[in-house]
Fold these 4 entries.
Entry 1:
Amino acid sequence: MTEEKLLLPAETYLKSGIHIGTKFRTKYMDPFIYKARSDGLSVLNLQKIDERIKIAANFLAQFESSEILIVSRRENGWKPVNAFKKATGIKVFAGRYPPGMMTNPQLDIYQEFKILLVTDSWPDRNAIMDAVRMGVPVIALCDTNNQSNNIDLVVPCNNKGKKSLGLFFWILAREYLLHKAVIKSPDEFTATVEEFTEE
């Protein structure tokens, strides 16, 4: 694995536990799994995590911040997604996704989006189903135990850990702003990983 090609030093990724999966693995996630540890936990391939984060950032950058929705039912994702919103201006929904937000124009909360990103395809399945109904592409963070039905882009990572989710959304915010030319170099991104991470 070559350091220059990764968005961050491998050590930074490893410290966050972004590569540590669960004991359960689905056939959908097999291509992203590097090995199983002696304690039974699956380990995700760091190179593939990094590649998919690059693809996700590039994909999101095709859209304006007002056209993107990020949903996180999982509580460990609330601080990271809110920090992401502060950094990028992208709309986020932390908590229980209200049904019909993307599909029912009669509702006050109705909004049109062109792309959806969810922190976990299982707890966020209602948002995914709404996106599918509306023909909106879905990016999902998937751990080794996730299914990938109705997902257009799988980003393999530990989608349960506070540090892992914090690091993911920190990198994504930086890369989105770089692609949008809001910042010219990674050093111009002044938000810290700590601002994205629960203690």
Entry 2:
Amino acid sequence: MDPSGLPSFTERLDASEHANLQLALDALLSSQDGWSLLGLPAELHHFGGFSLASILGGRFHGPSEPCAPEFVRVPVDVDRTHPCLRLGVYLLSFDEAPLVVLVGFSEGHGPRPGLLLDVVAAEPDDAAAFVARIRELMHEHNVFRGKVLSFGFTEWGGFGISFHSLPAIRRDSVVLPEADLDAIERHTIGVSRNAGALLAAGRHLKRGLLLYGPPGTGKTLSVMYLCGQLPGRTTLLLSGPGAGALGQAAAIARSLQPSMVVLEDVDLVAMERTMPGMGTNPLLFQLLNEMDGLSDDADVVFVLTTNRVDLLEPALAARPGRIDQAVEVGLPDGDCRARLLDLYLRDTDFDGGDLTGLVDATEGVTASFVKELVRRAVLVAALERGREPDDSSPPVTVAHLDSALDDLLHHSAPILRSSLGVNPGATDGADHAVVEPGGWFAYAPNTGQTFPG
């Protein structure tokens, strides 16, 4: 029949769906014979009047002669890509109805950026049924399912998605008070493992967890640990400028359950509404709406972290159903500091000396401070070894740790000491000063004595 008057069915998709669309088409065509593919020149993307209907109707007079199809390799996982059609036309049948299907992908420039699916059929219902089936196959073969994803700006100003492979974090590497770690696990891992029992009792699965505390205390490490303990869960990481992709991340989370949305430094987008400029903050209202809009059986976890819990909007932090559990990830106590030293010394050739004095001396510091302390102690030991460097770990002693602590407190820039969680000053007459609940005190590593600062 004459195609010039046939209606076209057009779907515009997000550019991030390119691989999902191609995999859906590949799956559909894998069981068919007699289909064909014609490539079209990529420069057609720059013509405003270009469409499948305009070509078939004879209204387009640009360079639309068929050519060899061009494919681009699109990431589908860490270090994995899939070839995806850039611009071309499939001639195929669906439920015995002949179809003409145009696929076009353009980076964020030109009159038609993004991903286009254009279908022409003798009957509009046939085109609509085909698009519906493609949508089903895109969901079935979705490359984001079960992956760890983050969002960042593309060179054209839109949001792009990146895949990540997070290191496996053992439970004993998350050095928190046992009660705090139990609370984090119970609200995330525990709910996931008992989802059936909760649903049978008519209880909801959606939940919000807030981790708050000073910088460097282990909030991000706790999130990485949770990712490893929830295999197969689609995890979406939002931080910095990527927080602007909240809507896109929430849509993926709803579609690919079970899922987890991690929003770091949530105070940057969810400050109290009475603060200057926050009363009309669109991201705050979007976050509240996304958390409210989940159905009760949605297995979606929102994990929010902040260094400034005092700045958070009460409608977020103080309302059950949005934040159901808040855990303070504070400065490590004596037991945690001892465990941190053992953890970071585990891969060194430590001589097994008594660390009691060092544990006492680091009262009031963060976990990141202890990690940096051990790194510097290894460096001190390597420099002391006095021979050509090699790849072996030098023996580390308590004296090396004391020297590294003295270097951190006396010779580091104040901003570094502050960022690592330690008092930037020092007390006269002592080797270095550290904080103690109720005040400052000084510690002399040569004697192991402490006295008020």
Entry 3:
Amino acid sequence: MNQNLILIGYIVPVVVGLVLMTPAGTSIGNMLVGRNPLMIHARRRHMLGMNLVAFTGFVVSAHTLWISNKISEGGNVCSSATVFSCDDVLGNAAYNTDPVFGLSWGLIGMAAFGALLFITNSVGKEPDSLWAERYLKYGMYMTGAGLAVIALLVSYEVEMGKICQFCTMAHISNVVALFGFWRAGQMHDRGEWNDNTEIISKGDGENKE
């Protein structure tokens, strides 16, 4: 299968997830209201977006692990003479594992995004629980720490003079997830977390008329 098509398949849900986390997601929410009336609420749209991003990060991390294993068996997946060559990056034995435990970066990414997916899915189902806000902070700390890992991996790519498209997609997913956790905290602080926020606002507007 064309690897560029697969890459597009990863880009689309991350972009949709990011849009759902912003005010621009209101238009998408309005389109989804017919199927799910609860999508009228900003918090539900936000958590749906975060789930999409975390899930995509998990899948793309699994994909990079599969590519690493495929290369170790003597195969090739997306080798290229251009700067974009995931085979050259993921097939480099000196850089495709972490320097402390020797674990594949793809496996580490799966574990990290799996934990983020657990957080976003749990908070999405029980947003008013006492632990929900604390879990969101954990997610923000995790994705914040992920920036250091991204910087290390990008330094490897710079040294090799090659870029792994799928690794970059995982990096972008982490950055978008960090934004999502940060904005969720802002929604808490501004009192936009409850489902009835928009309904109350609309009701106030009608009363004023």
Entry 4:
Amino acid sequence: MIKYSLLKGLILIISSAFFITGSWAETQAATPDAAEMWEIIQQQQKMIEQLQQKLEKTEQQMQVTEQQVDKTVQTVEAATEAMAIAQTSTGGAAWFDKTSIGGYGELHYNNLSDNNATIGGDDALNRVDFHRFVLYFGHEFTDSIRFFSELELEHALAGDGAPGEIELEQAWIEIDINDNHRFRAGLDVLPIGIINPTHEPDTFYGVERNKVESEIIPATWWEAGVGLNGEVAPGWNYDLVVHGGLLSKTTGADTLRPRSGRSKVTNADNQDIALTGRIRYTGIPGLEAGFSGHYQADMTGTADAFDVDATLFEGHIDYKHNSGFGLRALYARWDITPPSGIVFTQDDIAGWYIEPAYRFKAPAFMPGDMGIFARYATWDERGRGTVPDGSYVRFESWHVGMSWWPHQNVSFKIDYQNESGDADADAVKDGINLGMGYQF
């Protein structure tokens, strides 16, 4: 190699120069005899040989280094090629650039008394509960094909004898048909009401989800199915889903109760097919006005001898003005036609609420926003205690409270509730609720 030959020559020239200079100096001092001259030549030759050995060792080390550099370059090129393949297969980015993680959670403290403790026992609460811990996982396979999932742990601990559950609430694939319409299949929450599709704790007032939506609709309600969603005109959106229906009980304290009929897509045998549709108007900034309908021919499933026709209608508005004023209102009603053989004392289960609110900038010494609200609600709920099976009781409640958002996705809440109901109503609760919630 040319560079090594030049280095050798340079060393030999430098060595010779030292030799000649040293010999010349010694000659000036005193001319050595033949024996002394031979000894000097041998010493210089030995030094030259040692330098040549070091040079050869250095050359070998440099060759090894070159080989290692070549291997590193090959490895980097291979990795770059693999990255390019990954980017091509995912539409221009590696898989991890197309995967997202999020979630939400909420911690509650309830201090509630039961004003009807003589009916069905005392249901007072003095409890701290990390009610929900939820993780989202999403992935975009391409610009037009995406995945989303929601995995939830309730009440902090699940398992034998534990109060909580681990639930897979969403796991769906969505494919764009065109710019305005999409196809979706998998496990999904049904497009009914306000809380069912959007239930993160920083998005609503009050510590607990309102009873009208949790009992009547009932939120959170998810099923396996296929559907379409999209925009039919500017500001007008639609959802249409074909999915498994309820498996409501035909006897006992939860007779034909919609909330008790949710299968949660586990051991969901003999479900009847159901259909849910929604139309929403969002053409005015800050406004959502929606109407949903749901129908299934047999809300008890196909394994029994009963065909229980059931229809749900729901309508709502959710308005947030830029001045800070907000208003939510919702009405939901089930029309149920039970056959002979099922004890059911009414033809419909209904509820409604209205909730004005005002959100404003927090004082200067606090970050974020604050908000105040009031809510009036009335709803039908399964009677217990002395109420016969198949009977519902009318409840009503007032909630007033405040929320503080130090960050737009973090909220601290307090509210006071006052419930009342029919004479046979069980668990009529008054008291204070505190909460903390977040999403990311």
